[in-house]
């Protein structure tokens, strides 16, 4: 039986990296529950919201990066619903006129259309605790009023895997813009999916890119089973249990009319004049996709290497600095050695002291033959984990190669004398024996020699 076609769309909520909340001066960071609150974010009668301009700047930049048309005039609305995490019983959001609309993001060669990009405040967070019959919920209002940008796609995502790739590409964009701090800020998605003949189902508040793919896959299989058994898929909101890998019902899905949107009376309309918009366009960085294309054209890199190096802005900057010293060494050191070390230790380059100067200095040492590959890699590990620049580490530990040292020749002679059988095998054409001898010399000298120089000396002793 043919698999029924699905329609998938995402509503992604991204916490913006501002110091204060969207409509008040309360800080967005707090160490204790319910300590970053005021009459505005708690919805006290008579309190008046004041819009955070930095959040608006960030939202416009996100919309520009997603190729949206910017609405030069937009306003906020009240979305009314009753839930314990919403102290004032309405959420300030955007409905009729968002910040931007009708954009796109290219993922896996497919343009995923963006319906809208808008600003809204986050509700409070509910903490469910207890066990058995003694289960209860706590409310932390620190999150109430945190600025979010919501990115709503059209239902053009082709599969759960495509949805995950979309999130990967979106994260690159947000990272380059500097509007979102991965690992510290919240990023959630409401996953919408329907199959032929059924209503749209929303899987609410899914966190984690793998979880987004799994939630969509699980819900697709559930809907397919319901349809195959002659049932009808109803419009509803569901949750996702990551441990069980299954969705579960929450409530019947509301329509937009159920929220009773009205214009927010305590906020004036926002007018984005040409000067303001031009200044924000001037702040836009070269994004990852553009940078990868430039790397291929400018440096002649393979597509894979170009995309890997452009994945993170800091990695790209480090690479370009090192490429000025030696292009091929820069590709090897950054894309293979450095990124391998960071991935193995689950580190982001932004969380280390690694910079362009330190990596360029190491590439310079490698180019001039003053450090062995083994010691170069060890210095990179120390740089990533301890923040000690490679050149400083190599000098402090006496690991730089002295190309004029007569000690290299003495070490070669000593190794050959102790391993004369391997030397004889090399003389009769055994390349593995040559590599064996070179390795012993390098070990004796603790890597403080150029392997090519060692090879040349051994070959001269034939």
How many strand segments? 16
Task: Extract low-pLDDT stretches.
Answer: none
- Beta-strand portion reads 15-25%
Spatial strand sequence of the major β-sheet: 2-6-7-10-1-11-12-13-14
Distance between the termini: 71 Å
Helix and strand content put the structural class at alpha+beta
User: What is the general shape?
Assistant: elongated
Our count of helices gives: 15
Number of domains: 3
Description:
The chain has 462 residues and is α+β, with helices and mostly antiparallel strands. Helices cover 40% and strands 21% of the residues. Strands 2-6-7-10-1-11-12-13-14 form a 9-stranded mixed beta sheet. A 3-stranded antiparallel beta sheet has the order 5-4-15, with no helix packed on it. The protein has a two-stranded antiparallel sheet with strand order 3-16. The radius of gyration is 29 Å and the shape is elongated.
């Amino acid at each position: 039986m043919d698999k029924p076609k699905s329609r998938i769309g995402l509503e992604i909520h991204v916490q913006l990296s501002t110091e204060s909340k969207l409509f008040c001066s309360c800080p967005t960071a707090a160490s204790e529950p319910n300590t970053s609150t005021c009459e505005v974010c708690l919805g006290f009668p008579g309190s008046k919201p004041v819009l955070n301009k930095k959040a608006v700047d960030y939202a416009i930049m996100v919309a520009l990066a997603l190729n949206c048309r910017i609405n030069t005039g937009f306003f906020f609305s009240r979305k009314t619903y009753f839930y314990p995490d919403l102290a004032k019983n309405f959420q300030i959001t955007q409905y009729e006129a968002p910040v931007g609309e009708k954009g796109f993001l290219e993922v896996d060669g497919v343009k995923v259309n963006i319906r809208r990009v808008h600003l809204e405040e986050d509700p409070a967070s509910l903490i469910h605790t207890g066990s058995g019959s003694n289960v209860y919920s706590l409310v932390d209002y620190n999150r109430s009023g945190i600025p979010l940008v919501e990115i709503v796609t059209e239902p053009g995502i082709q599969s759960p895997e495509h949805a995950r790739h979309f999130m990967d590409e979106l994260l690159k964009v947000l990272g380059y813009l500097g509007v979102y701090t991965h690992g510290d800020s919240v990023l959630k998605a409401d996953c919408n999916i329907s199959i032929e003949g059924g209503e749209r189902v929303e899987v609410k508040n899914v966190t984690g890119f793998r979880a987004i793919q799994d939630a969509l896959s699980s819900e697709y299989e559930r809907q397919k089973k319901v349809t195959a058994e002659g049932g009808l898929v109803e419009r509803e909101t569901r949750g996702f249990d990551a441990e069980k890998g299954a969705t579960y019902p929450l409530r019947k899905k509301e329509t937009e009319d159920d929220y009773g949107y009205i214009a927010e009376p305590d906020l004036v309309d926002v007018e984005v004049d040409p000067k303001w918009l031009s200044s924000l366009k001037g702040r836009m960085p070269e994004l990852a996709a553009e940078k990868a294309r430039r790397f291929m054209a400018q440096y002649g890199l393979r597509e894979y290497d170009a995309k890997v190096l452009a994945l993170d802005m800091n990695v790209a900057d480090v690479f370009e600095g090192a490429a000025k010293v030696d292009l091929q060494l820069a590709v090897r050191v950054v894309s293979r050695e450095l990124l391998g070390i960071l991935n193995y230790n689950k580190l982001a380059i932004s969380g280390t002291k690694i910079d362009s100067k330190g990596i360029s200095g190491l590439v310079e040492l490698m180019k001039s033959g003053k450090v062995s590959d083994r010691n170069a890699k060890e210095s990179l590990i120390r740089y990533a984990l301890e923040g000690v620049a490679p050149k400083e580490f190599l000098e402090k530990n006496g690991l730089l190669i002295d190309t004029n040292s007569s000690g290299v020749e003495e070490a070669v002679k000593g190794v050959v004398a102790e391993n004369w059988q391997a030397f004889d095998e090399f003389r009769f054409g055994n390349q593995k024996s040559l590599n064996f001898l070179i390795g012993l010399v390098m070990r004796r000298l603790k890597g403080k020699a150029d392997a090519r120089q060692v090879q040349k000396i051994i070959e001269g002793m034939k």
